[in-house]
Specification:
The chain has about 90 residues and is an all-beta fold. The protein has a domain of about 60 residues. It is built from no helices and 7 strands. A 3-stranded antiparallel sheet has the order 3-4-7, with no helix packed on it. A two-stranded antiparallel ribbon has the order 1-2. The N and C termini lie far apart (about 60 Å).
Length: about 90
């Protein structure tokens, strides 16, 4: 909770009114995949093909919310990043 003190050096004071952990977010459901295939090429060269899929379930669970009393109490301020796919190739001589 935010209190106004009226002092110029310290214009506001924040006091904890509840114990830590009083407000908790639900568990997040996060699933990521990775697949890779190594290929042998002539003259002792190698190539690796890679595929990554992050947040495969496309969960948008909250990861942060406002805990200060007032109009922002419980307001979600951050969520999981979106589903992202990545393709990669590594070539080794």
């Amino acid at each position: 909770m935010l209190f106004r003190t009226g002092l110029k050096q310290q214009s506001s004071l924040t006091l904890r009114m509840e114990p830590l952990g009083a407000h908790r977010l639900p568990a997040t459901k996060l699933l990521s995949f990775r697949a890779a295939k190594r290929l042998a090429l002539p003259h002792d060269h190698r190539m690796t093909l890679q595929f990554d899929l992050y947040n495969a379930l496309h969960a948008n669970d909250a990861t942060r919310q406002g805990v200060r009393s007032g109009p922002t109490l419980g307001q979600i301020t951050a969520i999981l990043p979106p589903r992202v796919a990545r393709l990669g190739v590594t070539y080794t001589l």
